[in-house]
Amino acid sequence: MSTKEESNELVITRELAAPRDLVFKVWSEAEHLKNWWGPTGFKFSVVKLDFRPRGVFHYRMQTPDGDETMWGKFVYVEMEQPEKIVFVNSFADAEGNTIRAPFSAVFPLEIRNEVTFTEANGTTTMTLRGGPIHATDEEQQFYVGMFESMKQGFGGTFDQLEAYLAKI
């Protein structure tokens, strides 16, 4: 996995030993997402997945000890099977309304993410590019300050993706 930051965007690239069509599929179907998305060790459940432009992926995450529950959502912007998925990610409440992150009042409300998939010799290169939208300067700075933490978080999530792909 490699990471770099450009113009306040978090960029993470991961090589996956799986064909691009399969990697795209596990990003686009609830039966697959529930098996790998989210922080390592969290109990994860899909509330709703409507994989189309303006469709919503609403999900619930519970800490390993069961003491905390967090909700999140994607609002899909565009998808080009099997090359790209663009979505706006945010924290949510149980009803799917966008809310502030539970850990900070200055974490940006919405993050635009673009995931691209390229294939060579049966290996897929997946690149995630993400950055705040409609963010204040303070929110933008906070986001950039979170890069190391987000790299670790996405690293764990993508480790789960890699392990899941090896099983299916």
The CATH topology, please?
Alpha-D-Glucose-1,6-Bisphosphate, Chain A, domain 4
The total of beta strands comes to 9
Low-confidence residue ranges: 1-6
The CATH architecture assignment turns out to be: 2-Layer Sandwich
**Strand residue content:** 35-45%
Biggest sheet character: 9 strands, antiparallel
Which homologous superfamily in CATH is the superfamily?
Answer: START domain
CATH class wording:
Alpha Beta
Number of helices: 4
The radius of gyration over CA amounts to 15 Å
Q: How far do the termini sit from each other?
A: 21 Å
Mean pLDDT across residues: 94
- Helical content band: 25-40%
**Structural domain count:** 1
The 3D shape can be described as globular
Give the helix/strand class. Answer: alpha+beta
Order of helices and strands: EEHHEEEEEEEHH
Q: Explain this structure to me?
A:
- It is built from four helices and nine strands.
- Strands 1, 2, 3, 4, 5, 6, 7, 8 and 9 form a nine-stranded antiparallel sheet that branches.
- The protein has one domain (2-167): Alpha-D-Glucose-1,6-Bisphosphate, Chain A, domain 4, CATH 3.30.530.
- The chain starts with a strand and ends with a helix.
- With 168 residues, it is of the alpha+beta class.
